[in-house]
Amino acid sequence: MKLFSAKQLKEADQATEKNEGITSIDLMERAAGQAFEWIDAQLKGQQVPIYIFCGIGNNGGDGLALGRLLLNKKYDVHSFVVNYSENRSKCFLINYDRYKNTSKEWPKLLKSVDDFPDIPANALVVDAIFGIGLNRPLDQWVKQLVIHINQSKTFTIAIDVPSGMFVDSATPDLEAVIEASVTLTFQAPKLPFFLPETARFSNSIQVLNIGLDGNYLAETPTKAKLITKPDVQKMYQPRDKFSHKGTFGHALIVGGSYGKMGAVTLAVKACLRAGAGKTTTYIPESGYTILQTAVPEAMVIAAQESKHLVDFSVSNEYEAIAIGVGLGTDVKTMKGFKKFLETNKTQLVLDADALNLLAQDKELLKLLPKNCVLTPHPGELERLVGKWKNDFDKLKKTVSLSKSIDGVVVIKGAYTITVYHDQYYINSTGNPGMATAGSGDVLTGIITGLIVQGYDVLTAAVFGVYLHGSTGDLAAQQTGYNSLIAGDLIDFLGDGFIHLFRSDNVPQETAGNNRKNSN
Ligand SMILES: NC(=O)C1=CN([C@@H]2O[C@H](COP(=O)(O)OP(=O)(O)OC[C@H]3O[C@@H](n4cnc5c(N)ncnc54)[C@H](OP(=O)(O)O)[C@@H]3O)[C@@H](O)[C@H]2O)[C@@H](O)CC1
Ligand SMILES: Nc1ncnc2c1ncn2[C@@H]1O[C@H](COP(=O)(O)OP(=O)(O)O)[C@@H](O)[C@H]1O
Ligand SMILES: [K+]
Fold this sequence. Notes:
Largest sheet: 11 strands, mixed
Bound molecules: ligand NPW, adenosine-5'-diphosphate, potassium ion
Binding site for K(+): 59, 127, 163
Strand content: 15-25%
Shape: elongated
Helix content: 40-55%
Mean pLDDT: 95
CATH superfamily of the largest domain: Ribokinase
Keywords: ATP-binding, Isomerase, Lyase, Metal-binding, Multifunctional enzyme, NAD, NADP, Nucleotide-binding, Potassium
Structural class: alpha/beta
Strand order of the largest sheet: 1-9-18-17-16-15-14-13-10-11-12
Number of helices: 19
Number of strands: 18
Oligomer: single chain
Catalytic activity: (6S)-NADHX + ADP = AMP + phosphate + NADH + H(+); (6R)-NADPHX = (6S)-NADPHX; (6S)-NADPHX + ADP = AMP + phosphate + NADPH + H(+); (6R)-NADHX = (6S)-NADHX
Low-confidence stretches: 506-519
Distance between the termini: 39 Å
CATH topology of the largest domain: UDP-N-acetylmuramoyl-L-alanine:D-glutamate ligase
Cofactor: K(+); Mg(2+)
Radius of gyration: 27 Å
CATH class of the largest domain: Alpha Beta
Organism: Planktosalinus lacus
């Protein structure tokens, strides 16, 4: 799903008006109508005081149109115009008049802190103060209004965007943003809904299709995409009946150190479960028995050194090498790692301590082969690119890194973002249960397993991240968040694949039948 910029949405707006022969006021009525339908479907006529705060631009126009529709359906509506500027939009003014013709109680004008209404605890608040047109920090008194609404702790519905949130750049003041309970966003979600600093404001996101011009939406490329099930279904490569293990490649996992062999165990199991034809691990000698016992399906090459890898001389028979899990950052390991990079020609996935070694000597980045995959969590990323000022700056720095190595960088976390040059692929699966030691090692194994089967590196990263998260979601249904451990992600990976092609909305009857059959 494409995430459009504010400028693109305004262009889509104009394309729709031109191609459908409608005006912006018609489009506003459509948007407000969709918001009304959604709210009416939840309330079903239930009478609660509805407090609508409207700005003076088109977001405010949406708010007034919504207010009129709710009044027509006999809801208890109280509207306020937040008069932060005299520069009112045309569509706002039209809806202001329409509202006044509908209601005896006209919208109250708010011009300063003294005008703020008390908000009853049982009120439903609608935030239509600012939308995608916000382009500078809020005036002090408008910020106070946002704080006043947030402090009311009432259920708050943001129209299009929580007011105060910037769409295409960093939000300058995180105290001046509406904390929405639900965000009714038009046509497509906005990038900051998925970034760590701002995601908490938009909460439950409902995308309302207001029918913007289909051609414009299809043909306009976006920097950011939200990766959902239909996107990854297209990525899956079915297996041929006459395929054999040689068809699906040979992966090498290089890593482990004394006390950290588990990381390699998790990565190699995940790699196998992702579908690699063959896997080999290259580990310090002390891990030999551990690996052979824990993963009989994997081959093991034990290095001479007992506790840390020093010599990384590996053959070139592998389709991909994952390096770094449990590796450690011993001085001798660093030397061997450098020597390895100087001669290696195989596709690489670099994680954990391999990233820390790269951060210790950034010159090593120049030795990476084209199209490698780096999978840093935010701490590892910071060591590689330096401190960032905000989420947008983090993305900019990651884009520079991706371009400089001509490879893929996966920023792990909630809504993992895979960055390739200046494209962002935002993952929609996963849960806080996955914040547990070793779950990153599993991801490394999955991505490597996909690469050796023939997925290109970008697809392997985007698809692998999605699968890892959806597997975590399936596992959590059985384990709950607290009890999920990294090994569960391996156990459920098969379910993750199977669910790729299962409908999410299993009808009750079918679910019942399944239960009956399994009894
Ligand atoms: N295709 C679509 O997407 C559709 C969009 N629709 C709706 O329109 C919304 C966008 O409306 P919008 O462009 O009028 O901007 P909005 O957010 O109401 O802001 C109002 C104005 O405030 C100003 N301003 C900015 N910052 C400020 C500040 N800090 N303090 C004071 N003033 C500030 C700035 O004007 P300026 O002063 O810069 O000239 C800005 O223009 C969109 O979110 C959606 O709800 C739907 O109706 C139909 C389909
Ligand atoms: N709150 C969360 N929501 C979704 N995914 C998460 C969350 N927390 C962690 N994860 C995922 O779990 C993995 C953790 O990786 P990492 O920090 O490298 O763990 P480790 O080094 O212990 O293996 C990443 O893929 C990350 O995206
Ligand atoms: K809003």
